[in-house]
Protein backbone atom coordinates (compact mmCIF):
# COMPACT_ATOMS: atom_id res chain seq x y z
CA UNK A 1 0.00 0.00 0.00
CA UNK A 2 1.42 3.41 -0.93
CA UNK A 3 2.66 5.57 1.92
CA UNK A 4 2.26 9.35 1.78
CA UNK A 5 4.64 11.24 4.03
CA UNK A 6 3.10 13.78 6.44
CA UNK A 7 6.18 15.98 6.70
CA UNK A 8 5.33 19.47 5.32
CA UNK A 9 8.93 19.79 4.12
CA UNK A 10 8.67 16.66 1.99
CA UNK A 11 8.06 16.82 -1.79
CA UNK A 12 4.77 14.92 -1.43
CA UNK A 13 6.08 11.76 -3.05
CA UNK A 14 4.18 8.51 -2.62
CA UNK A 15 6.32 5.59 -1.49
CA UNK A 16 5.67 1.87 -1.84
CA UNK A 17 7.39 -0.98 0.00
CA UNK A 18 9.05 -3.61 -2.22
CA UNK A 19 11.22 -6.63 -1.50
CA UNK A 20 14.26 -4.38 -1.93
CA UNK A 21 13.04 -1.67 0.45
CA UNK A 22 11.01 1.54 0.07
CA UNK A 23 10.85 3.09 -3.39
CA UNK A 24 9.05 6.06 -4.91
CA UNK A 25 5.77 4.93 -6.43
CA UNK A 26 6.13 6.70 -9.77
CA UNK A 27 9.65 5.32 -10.27
CA UNK A 28 8.50 1.87 -9.22
CA UNK A 29 5.70 2.01 -11.80
CA UNK A 30 8.16 3.05 -14.49
CA UNK A 31 10.55 0.23 -13.61
CA UNK A 32 7.69 -2.25 -13.56
CA UNK A 33 6.53 -1.19 -17.02
CA UNK A 34 10.09 -1.20 -18.33
CA UNK A 35 10.64 -4.72 -17.04
CA UNK A 36 7.37 -5.92 -18.55
CA UNK A 37 8.20 -4.33 -21.88
CA UNK A 38 11.75 -5.72 -21.80
CA UNK A 39 10.50 -9.22 -21.04
CA UNK A 40 7.96 -9.13 -23.84
CA UNK A 41 10.33 -7.60 -26.38
CA UNK A 42 13.22 -9.88 -25.42
CA UNK A 43 11.00 -12.95 -25.78
CA UNK A 44 9.83 -11.85 -29.22
CA UNK A 45 13.36 -11.02 -30.35
CA UNK A 46 14.72 -14.29 -28.98
CA UNK A 47 12.12 -16.25 -30.94
CA UNK A 48 12.95 -14.20 -34.02
CA UNK A 49 16.66 -14.89 -33.64
CA UNK A 50 16.01 -18.61 -33.30
CA UNK A 51 14.06 -18.47 -36.55
CA UNK A 52 17.00 -16.72 -38.32
CA UNK A 53 15.01 -13.63 -39.18
CA UNK A 54 16.35 -10.22 -40.19
CA UNK A 55 17.00 -9.10 -36.60
CA UNK A 56 20.68 -8.94 -35.76
CA UNK A 57 22.16 -10.04 -32.45
CA UNK A 58 23.70 -6.66 -31.73
CA UNK A 59 20.26 -5.06 -31.99
CA UNK A 60 18.93 -7.66 -29.56
CA UNK A 61 21.68 -6.94 -27.05
CA UNK A 62 20.83 -3.22 -26.97
CA UNK A 63 17.30 -4.00 -25.75
CA UNK A 64 18.67 -5.04 -22.37
CA UNK A 65 20.25 -2.72 -19.86
CA UNK A 66 22.94 -4.85 -18.22
CA UNK A 67 23.26 -4.51 -14.44
CA UNK A 68 26.03 -2.09 -13.54
CA UNK A 69 26.81 0.69 -11.08
CA UNK A 70 28.92 3.77 -11.71
CA UNK A 71 31.47 4.45 -8.99
CA UNK A 72 32.75 8.05 -9.27
CA UNK A 73 36.54 8.13 -9.42
CA UNK A 74 36.99 11.76 -8.38
CA UNK A 75 34.81 14.09 -6.32
CA UNK A 76 35.08 17.80 -5.70
CA UNK A 77 33.61 20.17 -3.15
CA UNK A 78 31.07 21.36 -5.70
CA UNK A 79 30.22 17.92 -7.07
CA UNK A 80 30.26 14.96 -4.71
CA UNK A 81 28.97 11.51 -5.36
CA UNK A 82 28.75 8.30 -3.43
CA UNK A 83 27.03 4.97 -3.82
CA UNK A 84 25.68 3.07 -0.84
CA UNK A 85 26.14 -0.65 -0.39
CA UNK A 86 22.43 -1.34 -0.80
CA UNK A 87 22.33 0.73 -3.99
CA UNK A 88 25.33 -1.17 -5.36
CA UNK A 89 23.66 -4.49 -4.62
CA UNK A 90 20.46 -3.32 -6.28
CA UNK A 91 22.07 -1.97 -9.45
CA UNK A 92 24.29 -5.05 -9.83
CA UNK A 93 21.26 -7.34 -9.50
CA UNK A 94 22.77 -9.39 -6.69
CA UNK A 95 19.37 -10.97 -6.01
CA UNK A 96 19.28 -12.30 -9.57
CA UNK A 97 22.93 -13.36 -9.29
CA UNK A 98 21.99 -15.62 -6.36
CA UNK A 99 19.85 -17.65 -8.79
CA UNK A 100 22.50 -17.79 -11.51
CA UNK A 101 24.71 -20.92 -11.27
CA UNK A 102 27.66 -19.05 -12.83
CA UNK A 103 27.46 -16.09 -10.44
CA UNK A 104 26.38 -18.03 -7.35
CA UNK A 105 29.86 -18.73 -5.93
CA UNK A 106 30.98 -15.10 -6.27
CA UNK A 107 27.76 -13.81 -4.71
CA UNK A 108 28.09 -16.15 -1.72
CA UNK A 109 31.69 -15.05 -1.20
CA UNK A 110 30.62 -11.39 -1.21
CA UNK A 111 27.91 -12.13 1.35
CA UNK A 112 30.37 -14.07 3.49
CA UNK A 113 32.81 -11.16 3.50
CA UNK A 114 30.21 -8.61 4.59
CA UNK A 115 28.71 -10.96 7.20
CA UNK A 116 32.07 -11.77 8.78
CA UNK A 117 33.36 -8.19 8.83
CA UNK A 118 31.26 -5.88 11.03
CA UNK A 119 27.82 -6.94 9.82
CA UNK A 120 26.30 -5.09 12.78
CA UNK A 121 27.85 -1.79 11.65
CA UNK A 122 26.19 -1.86 8.23
CA UNK A 123 23.14 0.29 7.65
CA UNK A 124 19.73 -1.22 8.25
CA UNK A 125 18.97 -1.12 4.53
CA UNK A 126 22.21 -2.93 3.69
CA UNK A 127 21.51 -5.58 6.34
CA UNK A 128 18.03 -6.20 4.98
CA UNK A 129 19.38 -6.41 1.45
CA UNK A 130 21.97 -8.99 2.50
CA UNK A 131 19.19 -11.05 4.11
CA UNK A 132 17.13 -10.75 0.91
CA UNK A 133 20.02 -12.01 -1.22
CA UNK A 134 20.69 -14.84 1.23
CA UNK A 135 17.03 -15.88 1.20
CA UNK A 136 17.04 -15.92 -2.60
CA UNK A 137 20.18 -18.08 -2.64
CA UNK A 138 18.67 -20.34 0.03
CA UNK A 139 15.45 -20.89 -1.95
CA UNK A 140 17.47 -21.61 -5.09
CA UNK A 141 19.58 -24.18 -3.23
CA UNK A 142 16.52 -25.98 -1.86
CA UNK A 143 14.99 -26.00 -5.32
CA UNK A 144 18.04 -27.41 -7.10
CA UNK A 145 19.74 -29.36 -4.30
CA UNK A 146 23.14 -27.86 -5.19
CA UNK A 147 25.60 -25.82 -3.09
CA UNK A 148 23.98 -26.73 0.23
CA UNK A 149 27.33 -26.53 2.01
CA UNK A 150 27.93 -22.89 1.00
CA UNK A 151 24.51 -21.72 2.20
CA UNK A 152 24.83 -23.67 5.45
CA UNK A 153 28.16 -21.97 6.10
CA UNK A 154 26.58 -18.55 5.47
CA UNK A 155 23.79 -19.29 7.96
CA UNK A 156 26.35 -20.26 10.60
CA UNK A 157 28.37 -17.09 9.98
CA UNK A 158 25.27 -14.91 10.11
CA UNK A 159 24.12 -16.52 13.36
CA UNK A 160 27.51 -15.81 14.92
CA UNK A 161 27.45 -12.22 13.64
CA UNK A 162 23.99 -11.62 15.10
CA UNK A 163 24.99 -13.12 18.44
CA UNK A 164 28.13 -10.99 18.60
CA UNK A 165 26.06 -7.85 18.02
CA UNK A 166 23.07 -8.80 20.14
CA UNK A 167 23.29 -5.85 22.51
CA UNK A 168 23.00 -2.17 21.68
CA UNK A 169 25.14 -0.22 20.70
CA UNK A 170 27.00 -3.09 19.00
CA UNK A 171 24.65 -3.03 16.05
CA UNK A 172 23.04 -0.47 13.76
CA UNK A 173 19.26 -0.50 13.69
CA UNK A 174 16.51 -1.19 16.17
CA UNK A 175 16.14 -4.25 18.37
CA UNK A 176 13.04 -5.16 16.37
CA UNK A 177 15.14 -5.30 13.19
CA UNK A 178 17.76 -7.43 14.95
CA UNK A 179 15.07 -9.83 16.21
CA UNK A 180 13.58 -10.04 12.73
CA UNK A 181 16.98 -11.03 11.32
CA UNK A 182 17.25 -13.75 13.97
CA UNK A 183 13.80 -15.08 13.15
CA UNK A 184 14.61 -15.16 9.43
CA UNK A 185 17.84 -17.09 10.01
CA UNK A 186 16.17 -19.55 12.38
CA UNK A 187 13.40 -20.15 9.86
CA UNK A 188 15.94 -20.94 7.13
CA UNK A 189 17.86 -23.25 9.48
CA UNK A 190 14.68 -25.20 10.26
CA UNK A 191 13.89 -25.56 6.58
CA UNK A 192 17.45 -26.71 5.87
CA UNK A 193 17.33 -29.30 8.66
CA UNK A 194 14.07 -30.70 7.28
CA UNK A 195 15.37 -30.76 3.71
CA UNK A 196 15.99 -34.19 2.19
CA UNK A 197 17.73 -34.86 -1.08
CA UNK A 198 15.52 -36.56 -3.63
CA UNK A 199 17.26 -39.59 -5.06
CA UNK A 200 17.04 -40.02 -8.78
CA UNK A 201 14.61 -42.72 -9.78
CA UNK A 202 15.71 -45.53 -12.04
CA UNK A 203 14.47 -44.13 -15.35
CA UNK A 204 16.72 -46.21 -17.59
CA UNK A 205 18.70 -43.18 -18.74
CA UNK A 206 22.48 -42.80 -18.73
CA UNK A 207 24.19 -42.07 -15.40
CA UNK A 208 27.70 -40.89 -14.56
CA UNK A 209 28.86 -44.39 -13.63
CA UNK A 210 27.83 -45.67 -17.06
CA UNK A 211 30.46 -43.51 -18.76
CA UNK A 212 33.90 -44.88 -19.64
CA UNK A 213 36.64 -44.35 -17.06
CA UNK A 214 38.47 -41.87 -19.29
CA UNK A 215 35.35 -39.69 -19.55
CA UNK A 216 34.80 -39.80 -15.78
CA UNK A 217 38.45 -38.90 -15.19
CA UNK A 218 38.15 -35.89 -17.52
CA UNK A 219 35.06 -34.76 -15.61
CA UNK A 220 36.56 -35.17 -12.14
CA UNK A 221 39.76 -33.38 -13.11
CA UNK A 222 37.66 -30.23 -13.68
CA UNK A 223 36.65 -30.11 -9.99
CA UNK A 224 38.35 -27.34 -8.05
CA UNK A 225 37.27 -28.48 -4.57
CA UNK A 226 39.06 -31.51 -3.14
CA UNK A 227 36.03 -32.29 -0.94
CA UNK A 228 33.92 -32.87 -4.06
CA UNK A 229 36.60 -35.21 -5.37
CA UNK A 230 36.65 -37.20 -2.12
CA UNK A 231 32.85 -37.42 -1.95
CA UNK A 232 32.62 -38.62 -5.54
CA UNK A 233 34.95 -41.48 -4.65
CA UNK A 234 32.61 -42.56 -1.85
CA UNK A 235 29.76 -43.38 -4.23
CA UNK A 236 31.11 -46.64 -5.66
CA UNK A 237 34.30 -48.63 -6.15
CA UNK A 238 35.04 -47.54 -9.72
CA UNK A 239 34.73 -43.85 -8.76
CA UNK A 240 36.98 -44.45 -5.76
CA UNK A 241 39.69 -45.96 -7.95
CA UNK A 242 39.59 -42.95 -10.27
CA UNK A 243 39.49 -40.33 -7.51
CA UNK A 244 42.40 -42.01 -5.70
CA UNK A 245 44.62 -41.85 -8.77
CA UNK A 246 47.91 -40.09 -8.01
CA UNK A 247 47.74 -38.11 -11.26
CA UNK A 248 44.34 -36.73 -10.25
CA UNK A 249 45.82 -35.21 -7.09
CA UNK A 250 48.80 -33.97 -9.04
CA UNK A 251 46.43 -31.91 -11.19
CA UNK A 252 44.82 -30.53 -8.02
CA UNK A 253 48.25 -29.49 -6.71
CA UNK A 254 49.26 -27.82 -9.96
CA UNK A 255 45.94 -25.96 -10.15
CA UNK A 256 45.87 -24.53 -6.61
CA UNK A 257 49.56 -23.88 -5.91
CA UNK A 258 52.47 -22.25 -7.73
CA UNK A 259 55.91 -23.70 -8.39
CA UNK A 260 57.52 -21.98 -5.39
CA UNK A 261 54.96 -23.39 -2.96
CA UNK A 262 55.29 -26.87 -4.45
CA UNK A 263 59.09 -26.83 -4.40
CA UNK A 264 59.24 -25.53 -0.81
CA UNK A 265 56.88 -28.19 0.52
CA UNK A 266 58.63 -30.95 -1.43
CA UNK A 267 61.94 -29.87 0.05
CA UNK A 268 60.48 -30.04 3.56
CA UNK A 269 59.15 -33.53 2.89
CA UNK A 270 62.51 -34.59 1.52
CA UNK A 271 61.30 -35.36 -1.99
CA UNK A 272 61.66 -33.98 -5.51
CA UNK A 273 59.73 -33.83 -8.77
CA UNK A 274 61.95 -36.53 -10.29
CA UNK A 275 61.19 -39.04 -7.54
CA UNK A 276 57.86 -40.66 -6.84
CA UNK A 277 55.63 -38.11 -5.10
CA UNK A 278 52.55 -38.86 -3.04
CA UNK A 279 50.52 -36.00 -4.50
CA UNK A 280 47.54 -36.55 -2.21
CA UNK A 281 49.73 -36.20 0.89
CA UNK A 282 51.45 -33.18 -0.64
CA UNK A 283 48.07 -31.59 -1.37
CA UNK A 284 46.93 -32.03 2.24
CA UNK A 285 50.12 -30.38 3.53
CA UNK A 286 49.78 -27.47 1.11
CA UNK A 287 46.11 -26.89 1.92
CA UNK A 288 46.87 -26.67 5.64
CA UNK A 289 49.57 -24.10 5.00
CA UNK A 290 48.26 -22.00 2.09
CA UNK A 291 44.57 -22.80 1.72
CA UNK A 292 42.91 -23.29 -1.66
CA UNK A 293 42.40 -20.98 -4.59
CA UNK A 294 38.98 -19.37 -4.96
CA UNK A 295 37.48 -20.14 -8.35
CA UNK A 296 34.64 -18.12 -9.90
CA UNK A 297 32.98 -18.74 -13.25
CA UNK A 298 31.98 -15.06 -13.49
CA UNK A 299 33.37 -12.09 -11.56
CA UNK A 300 32.54 -8.41 -11.19
CA UNK A 301 34.86 -6.22 -13.26
CA UNK A 302 35.76 -2.56 -12.93
CA UNK A 303 35.93 -0.58 -16.16
CA UNK A 304 39.25 1.25 -16.38
CA UNK A 305 37.68 3.98 -18.54
CA UNK A 306 34.42 4.99 -16.84
CA UNK A 307 34.79 3.32 -13.43
CA UNK A 308 31.61 1.24 -13.66
CA UNK A 309 31.29 -2.07 -11.85
CA UNK A 310 29.60 -4.76 -13.90
CA UNK A 311 29.34 -8.50 -14.35
CA UNK A 312 31.91 -9.91 -16.73
CA UNK A 313 29.31 -12.02 -18.54
CA UNK A 314 26.85 -9.12 -19.02
CA UNK A 315 29.06 -6.18 -19.96
CA UNK A 316 28.06 -2.55 -19.46
CA UNK A 317 27.23 0.56 -21.54
CA UNK A 318 30.56 2.42 -21.35
CA UNK A 319 30.40 6.14 -22.16
CA UNK A 320 33.95 6.17 -23.54
CA UNK A 321 33.25 4.29 -26.75
CA UNK A 322 36.28 5.80 -28.47
CA UNK A 323 38.71 4.23 -25.98
CA UNK A 324 39.94 0.67 -26.00
CA UNK A 325 37.91 -1.56 -23.70
CA UNK A 326 39.86 -2.37 -20.55
CA UNK A 327 38.76 -3.72 -17.18
CA UNK A 328 40.11 -5.12 -13.92
CA UNK A 329 38.61 -8.22 -12.27
CA UNK A 330 37.45 -7.56 -8.71
CA UNK A 331 37.80 -10.12 -5.95
CA UNK A 332 35.08 -10.00 -3.26
CA UNK A 333 37.52 -8.19 -0.96
CA UNK A 334 38.32 -5.60 -3.64
CA UNK A 335 34.61 -5.14 -4.36
CA UNK A 336 33.97 -4.48 -0.66
CA UNK A 337 36.67 -1.81 -0.54
CA UNK A 338 35.44 -0.11 -3.70
CA UNK A 339 31.84 0.23 -2.52
CA UNK A 340 33.11 1.92 0.63
CA UNK A 341 33.11 -0.85 3.21
From TrEMBL:
<dbReference type="InterPro" id="IPR040394">
    <property type="entry name" value="FBX25/32"/>
</dbReference>
<keyword id="KW-0833">Ubl conjugation pathway</keyword>
<protein>
    <submittedName>
        <fullName>Uncharacterized protein</fullName>
    </submittedName>
</protein>
<dbReference type="InterPro" id="IPR036047">
    <property type="entry name" value="F-box-like_dom_sf"/>
</dbReference>
<dbReference type="GO" id="GO:0005737">
    <property type="term" value="C:cytoplasm"/>
</dbReference>
<comment type="pathway">
    <text>Protein modification; protein ubiquitination.</text>
</comment>
<dbReference type="GO" id="GO:0005634">
    <property type="term" value="C:nucleus"/>
</dbReference>
<dbReference type="GO" id="GO:0019005">
    <property type="term" value="C:SCF ubiquitin ligase complex"/>
</dbReference>
<dbReference type="GO" id="GO:0016567">
    <property type="term" value="P:protein ubiquitination"/>
</dbReference>
<keyword id="KW-0539">Nucleus</keyword>
Amino acid sequence: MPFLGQDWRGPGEEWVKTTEGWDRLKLWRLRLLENLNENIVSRILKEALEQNTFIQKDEYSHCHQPPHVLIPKHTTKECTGSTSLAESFSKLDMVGAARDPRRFAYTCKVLQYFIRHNFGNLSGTAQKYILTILEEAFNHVLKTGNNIKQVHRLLIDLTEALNDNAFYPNHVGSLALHDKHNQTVQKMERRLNNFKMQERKDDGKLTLSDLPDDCIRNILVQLSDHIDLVHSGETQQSMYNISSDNQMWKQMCLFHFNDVQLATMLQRLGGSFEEGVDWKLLYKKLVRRHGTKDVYAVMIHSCNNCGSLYWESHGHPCHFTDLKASSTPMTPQMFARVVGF
